[in-house]
């Protein structure tokens, strides 16, 4: 597999593994206090913020969507999009490394770009996420080719969305829906008003699987039709008739020449009669499931109900999603007003994020956006009942994101609000980046609390996030892959000497056994050990000293 090379790539690789681990500093909660604990908005450098999140949320984020600078070599009102190409690659490489570690095993990663850097981003993502985990390259039609200002040799109307999985994908039945139009109604304006009586006219065994096939003929059946004359004037009347007969509206399709089974069936059918065939398909969507198909005029029925539904007293048509997302399906007409904040050239439609979340998540899952911008990702996640983390470095974390989410809590009705029946509520917490855990000399920051270091140590040792609801009253952190972990720090044992219980002694070891007896390997992290190497080896204990055993490994 080819790898990208660029100026200072080696430095970028080092940065991705050595970026300091910072604490998160709580600033303020908004809305419901309990729900605010689940949703985080972080102002600060997203590289440092992503690193800070690893001990807390590593491997737990179900969907990560990022809308990074496209590197168009233009300057916009709220951000400068003019990085040198190698700088852009280094910037993305370091962040993608950390993003991967935050993604759940069944999570999906999405990145949206334009032509400027998407092809390079594809190679980067292939390397970091593995090429085998590539899911799709989606062409998103952000606008139509019509109108002034769309000149050029080839008109650029699309952006590109790359999707990767961490390891596996959970199936989500997501389809594209739109209000049924006159063109579709002209195909589905007939309905089966009366089936009549059926009789068996033919029976045989399928050549493909040996299972029985029954052919039925119907007598005294009735087929009605809905008049579409003066459609615009009679739209409400026509809609009522469609809803009334929705379950039996149909169109017919000619049998494909290559389908010998179907061709044999219709060969003996009277074109004036209605038939049904009961059989068990040997392949395809309904493989192994007994199925009944209807035929009229020697053509196959297609029921409107199989590709449509009734929503809010309106028939909507469904299509399977493809890797081309049309402008008409995700309009940007009112994007400037979404959220009540101005963010020219940087907003994405709420409908776009809604689709991505529908594909990637279920209610209650955690999503993350490390290039939050105006806060669209957080706003959509909030309305859809998802937990979220948003990271934004600029001042618009305060001037745009916070006011936008306050409006969401108050029940604003823009964007996807009506589609998801949003009524308001919920909350979020605002954080900034605190001090690094280690100072320049590698010593622990005085602000580091036991739980902060416990989360960090647990991540270093296990590459999993520590349960954040855990309240520690003793050194035992947990057991992972048969290894028990203990942290002697910050007076967790009270005034037990020496040094408040931060030094491993025989008496402290006896107390650790009382806290959590464990048969097998144990790892103890503390300031020092008074037990000799031979005794530790005999007890199957590995001791790691704070800060030296941690500082050198802080970014592994």
Put the structure in a nutshell.
The two termini are 24 Å apart. Helix content is 26%, strand content 29%. It is built from 15 helices and 29 strands.
Describe this structure in words.
The chain has 556 residues and is of the alpha/beta class. The chain has three domains: 279 residues, Vaccinia Virus protein VP39 (Rossmann fold, 3-Layer(aba) Sandwich); 140 residues, no CATH class; 102 residues, no CATH class. Helix content is 26%, strand content 29%. It contains 15 helices and 29 strands. The strands form six sheets. It has a ten-stranded mixed beta sheet with strand order 1-23-2-22-21-3-6-8-7-20, with helices on both faces. An eight-stranded antiparallel beta sheet has the order 11-12-15-16-17-14-10-13, with no helix packed on it. The protein has a four-stranded mixed beta sheet with strand order 24-25-27-29. Strand 16 and strand 17 form a beta hairpin. The protein is elongated and about 95 Å long. The model has no long low-confidence stretch (mean pLDDT 88).
The number of distinct structural domains comes to 3
Strand order of the largest sheet: 1-23-2-22-21-3-6-8-7-20
Rounded mean pLDDT is 88
Biggest pleated-sheet summary = 10 strands, mixed
So what's the CATH class of the largest domain?
A: Alpha Beta
* Rg, Cα atoms, Å: 31 Å
- Give the CATH architecture of the largest domain: 3-Layer(aba) Sandwich
The low-confidence parts are none
Strand content: 25-35%
Structural class: alpha/beta
Q: What is the fold named in CATH at topology level of the largest domain?
A: Rossmann fold
CATH superfamily of the largest domain: Vaccinia Virus protein VP39
Assembly type: single chain
């Amino acid at each position: 597999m080819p790898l990208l090379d660029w100026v200072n790539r080696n430095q970028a690789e080092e940065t991705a593994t050595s970026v300091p681990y910072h604490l998160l500093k709580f600033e303020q909660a908004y809305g419901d206090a309990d729900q605010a604990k689940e949703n985080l908005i972080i102002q600060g450098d997203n590289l440092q913020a992503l690193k800070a999140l690893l001990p807390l949320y590593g491997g737990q984020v179900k969907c990560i969507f990022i809308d990074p600078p496209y590197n168009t070599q233009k300057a916009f009102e709220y951000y400068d999009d003019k990085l040198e190409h190698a700088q852009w690659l280094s910037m993305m490489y370091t962040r993608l490394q950390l993003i991967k570690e935050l993604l759940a095993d069944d999570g999906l990663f999405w990145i949206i770009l334009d032509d400027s850097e998407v092809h390079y981003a594809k190679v980067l993502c292939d390397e970091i996420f593995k090429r085998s985990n590539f899911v799709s390259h989606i062409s998103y039609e952000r606008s139509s080719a019509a109108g002034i200002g769309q000149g050029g040799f080839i008109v650029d109307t699309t952006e590109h969305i790359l999707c990767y999985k961490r390891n596996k994908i959970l199936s989500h039945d997501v389809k594209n829906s739109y209000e049924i139009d006159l063109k579709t109604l002209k195909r589905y304006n007939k309905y089966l008003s009366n089936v009549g009586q059926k009789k068996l006219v033919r029976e045989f065994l399928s050549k493909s699987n040996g299972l029985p096939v029954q052919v039925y003929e119907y007598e005294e059946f009735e087929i009605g039709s809905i008049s579409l004359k003066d459609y615009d004037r009679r739209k409400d009347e026509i809609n009522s008739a469609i809803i009334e007969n929705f379950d039996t509206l149909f169109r017919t399709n000619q049998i494909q020449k290559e389908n010998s089974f179907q061709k044999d069936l219709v060969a003996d059918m009277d074109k004036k009669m209605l038939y049904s065939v009961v059989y068990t398909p040997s392949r395809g969507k309904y493989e192994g499931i007994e199925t009944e198909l209807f035929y009229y005029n020697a053509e196959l029925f297609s029921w409107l109900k199989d590709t449509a539904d009734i929503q809010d007293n309106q028939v909507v048509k469904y299509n399977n999603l493809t890797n081309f997302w049309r402008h008409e399906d995700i309009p940007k007409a009112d994007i400037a007003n979404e959220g009540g904040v101005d963010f020219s050239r940087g907003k994405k439609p709420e409908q776009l994020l809604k689709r991505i979340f529908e594909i990637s998540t279920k209610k209650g899952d955690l999503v993350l956006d490390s290039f939050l911008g105006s806060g669209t990702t957080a706003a959509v996640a909030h309305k859809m009942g998802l937990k979220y983390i948003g990271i934004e470095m600029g001042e618009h974390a305060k001037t745009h994101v916070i006011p936008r989410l306050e409006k969401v809590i108050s029940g604003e009705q823009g964007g996807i609000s009506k589609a998801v029946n949003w009524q308001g509520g919920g909350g979020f917490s605002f954080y900034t980046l605190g001090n690094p855990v280690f100072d320049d000399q590698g010593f622990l920051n005085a602000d580091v609390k036991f739980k902060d270091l416990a989360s960090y140590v647990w991540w270093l040792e296990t590459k999993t996030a520590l349960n954040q609801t855990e309240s520690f009253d003793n050194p035992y952190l947990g057991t992972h892959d048969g290894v028990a972990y203990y942290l002697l720090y910050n007076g967790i044992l009270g005034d037990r000497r020496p040094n408040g219980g931060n030094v491993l002694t025989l008496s402290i070891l006896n107390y650790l056994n009382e806290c959590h007896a464990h048969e097998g390997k144990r790892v103890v992290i503390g300031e020092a050990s008074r037990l000799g190497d031979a005794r530790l080896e005999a007890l199957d204990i590995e001791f790691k000293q704070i800060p030296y055993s941690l500082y050198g490994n802080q970014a592994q």
